[in-house]
UniProtKB/TrEMBL annotation, chain A:
This is Uncharacterized protein. The chain crosses the membrane at residues 33-49, 101-132, 138-159, 171-191, 211-231. Keywords: Membrane, Transmembrane, Transmembrane helix.
From TrEMBL, chain B:
This is ABC transporter domain-containing protein. PANTHER family: ABC TRANSPORTER, ATP-BINDING PROTEIN. PROSITE patterns: ABC_TRANSPORTER_2. One of its GO terms (molecular function) is ATP hydrolysis activity. It comes from the Bacteria. It comes from Sphaerisporangium rufum. Belongs to the ABC transporter superfamily. Residues 228-237 have a biased composition (Low complexity).
Length: 239, 287
């Protein structure tokens, strides 16, 4: 037996990514990834069953990013809910601190949602566009889906089981939250919520990357940062 | 490791589970947490392990490496025992081979490739114990570790606790079955009515003396009139906040037929008492 030495706390740089890998493995093995993957397929089929004509790639990407928010939120929520509650307690002690478990969960959720978002950008390049778009359009598409990813992870985290115990309430909050964001987007006050409709409007502008994107992107980042801050604060008392 | 004025409740409107609890766990301590169902034992263990933060008060000096084994291991995970422990070893920055020694000691080796969902209650419990021991713990927190274990593993656990303590670690065990009763210097943390009473056992069974029993929680008038207050409020005339002695324990000798002895001891233990069986000779009865 060998309890002769007491080693130190596991290093942050190793504990968090390894715990994130454990969470992703648990998520994939639980087959919960099938649901958001089907959602992604539906979005791709709806948007690209008829190839987007040349020059319309960026608006198509914007529609894709907007429609994927609930899909990515579902993926994030499913990942964060994949572990039993008691396992989170074990993971917290294994990682050294509760905050590391929260960080690992968000990292894992971001990785899964990021993979789905990357597919949403890459697949149309092969089958969704009439002509292969230029690099500016691809960068614009990546930026839009990055915003979708951040919004989806924030919404998914706030509706995950540690925050909302009841699955039905959680699902309603996720879908209702997304619907609320869309409805508030109709109000002519762009900073009132995550400007999902603002992404779509901005994508129609010729100067999208330089003038159209920064405003909605900044508002999106601020709202999502507040949401993730709320999530991490709530998790302090909801392990 | 020092717990100072610790209070906890699960929500802003929820009742306090623990109130103004203070005690100290020096390195090398083996502590047994007892108390009735719902008294807050598991909550205290989670607070000590650092899995939940105190509502008020503080826990300082917690060792950096904490091993925590829950009362019920969560088997609803799509891993084999080996894959699960491999992931947990990686998180703890330990090689996967770290599980082998503990799996061997706890009799889990043959089940390492079994899916967690297919493990029996006792075997799943062993997985929980192994993951808590993957890195040499400075603080080992075990919630009802003897529950459902076979005799071999039940005999092994006190040895492991003693070894962790001998290495300078702290062991805190919630245990209705008093599996660590023979440990010299065992500290007992009795959780009741929102507080924790600390008692130490010098010879391991019946000779107990109070180390510390302290609270600052006000008693209700009714409780004060009844002489209650969870056995921890300062009695009249005693300065507030001073340690209050816990009543000394007593030995009750019960003479039963030899054929009924095991059953009586079992019932006493099930009721939370420390009971041991010894042979009775006629000369004892005559004296």
């Amino acid at each position: 037996m060998t309890t002769a030495t007491l080693t130190g706390e596991p290093a942050l740089t190793r504990a968090v990514p390894r715990l994130a890998a454990f969470k992703i493995a648990a998520y994939l093995r639980s087959h919960r990834v099938v649901q958001p993957f089907l959602g992604l397929l539906v979005v791709i089929i709806v948007l690209y069953s008829t190839r987007a004509p040349a020059g319309q790639e960026l608006p198509a990407y914007a529609d894709s990013a907007a429609m994927l928010v609930p899909v990515l939120a579902w993926a994030a929520r499913g990942l964060l809910d994949a572990e039993p509650d008691v396992q989170r307690l074990i993971s917290m002690t294994a990682a050294g601190r509760p905050g590391r478990e929260v960080a690992a969960g968000l990292l894992a959720a971001g990785a899964v949602a990021g993979t789905l978002a990357a597919l949403a950008v890459a697949v149309p390049l092969g089958i969704g566009f009439a002509a292969f778009p230029g690099p500016a359009t691809i960068v614009g598409g990546l930026a839009l889906h990055l915003l979708s990813l951040v919004a989806g992870v924030a919404l998914g985290a706030l509706t995950s089981r540690p925050i909302l115990r009841d699955p039905a309430t959680s699902a309603l909050a996720l879908l209702g939250g997304y619907a609320g964001v869309l409805l508030l987007g109709l109000v002519p006050v762009p900073w009132l919520t995550v400007p999902v409709l603002g992404w779509i409007r901005a994508a129609g502008r010729p100067d999208f990357l330089t003038a159209g994107l920064p405003g909605p992107a900044a508002i999106t980042v601020v709202w999502c940062a507040l949401a993730l801050l709320a999530y991490t604060r709530l998790r302090r008392t909801r392990p | 490791m020092r717990i100072t004025d610790l209070s906890f409740r699960y929500g802003r409107r929820a009742p306090w589970v623990l109130t103004d609890v203070s005690f100290e766990l020096p390195p090398g301590t083996v502590a047994e947490v007892t108390g009735g169902n719902g008294a807050g034992k598991s909550t205290l263990l989670r607070l000590l392990a650092g899995a939940v933060p105190p509502g008020r008060g503080s826990i300082t000096g917690r060792p950096p490496v904490v091993g925590y084994a829950p009362e019920i291991f969560p088997v609803e995970q799509a891993f084999t025992a080996r894959a699960y422990l491999g992931h947990l070893a990686a998180v703890r920055d330990r090689p996967a081979a770290a599980m082998d020694l503990w799996a061997e000691r706890l009799g889990l080796t043959d089940l390492l490739d079994t899916p967690l969902r297919d493990l029996s209650k006792g075997s799943a419990h062993k997985v929980g114990l192994v993951q808590a021991l993957l890195a040499p713990p400075g603080l080992l927190v075990l919630d009802e570790p003897f529950s459902g274990l076979d005799e071999r593993t039940r005999a092994e656990l006190p040895l492991i606790a003693a070894e962790v303590a001998a290495a300078g670690g702290i062991v805190v065990v919630s245990d209705h079955q008093h599996g660590l009763a023979g440990h010299p210097g065992l500290l007992r943390l009795t959780v009741a009515a929102g507080t924790v009473t600390v008692t130490t056992f010098e010879t391991g069974l019946v000779e107990a003396r109070t180390l510390e029993a302290r609270t600052t929680e006000p008693r209700t008038e009714a409780a004060a009139a009844a002489g209650l207050g969870a056995g921890r409020a300062a009695p009249a005339g005693e300065p507030d906040g001073e340690p209050v002695p816990h009543p000394r324990q007593a030995v009750v000798e019960v003479l039963v037929d030899a054929a009924d002895a095991e059953a009586v001891v079992g019932k006493l233990r099930a009721d939370g008492y420390q009971a041991r069986l010894r042979a009775h000779t006629p000369s004892e009865g005559a004296s």
